[in-house]
Amino acid sequence: YDQRREEDGREWLGIAQALAQRVGTDARLYIPIDNTRAVIAIRGAHYDEAQALFEKVVERQRALDPDDPN
């Protein structure tokens, strides 16, 4: 996504998501995937999608470590 090639980014995210699904359901696998999806959504001006994804990332992170202030 650094090169602003949204479609390429989405394609690679699909590959990452498929690999994560094969490995397991550990939320830690999906946090960076959803975070990257949110960044790509922002760059594509899909702000509602990005907000929902960022909220999912925060929710998953808090579920992993409720005492973490981040």
What does this structure look like?
This protein is 76% helix and 0% strand. It is an all-alpha fold and 70 residues long. The longest helix has 18 residues, at 6-23. The model has no long low-confidence stretch (mean pLDDT 86).
Individual helix count: 3
Taking the sheet with the most strands, its summary is: none
Shape: flat
Terminal Cα span = 24 Å
Secondary-structure-based class equals mainly alpha
The helix content is over 70%
Radius of gyration: 13 Å
Compute the average pLDDT.
86
N to C succession of SSEs: HHH
The percentage of residues in β strands lies in: under 5%
Note poorly predicted spans: none
Number of strands: 0
Keywords:
70 residues; mainly alpha; flat
Give a short overview.
The chain is mainly alpha-helical. The protein has helices at residues 6-23, 27-43, 47-64.
List strands and helices in order, with pairings:
Layout: H1 6-23, H2 27-43, H3 47-64
Helix pairs in contact: 1-2, 2-3
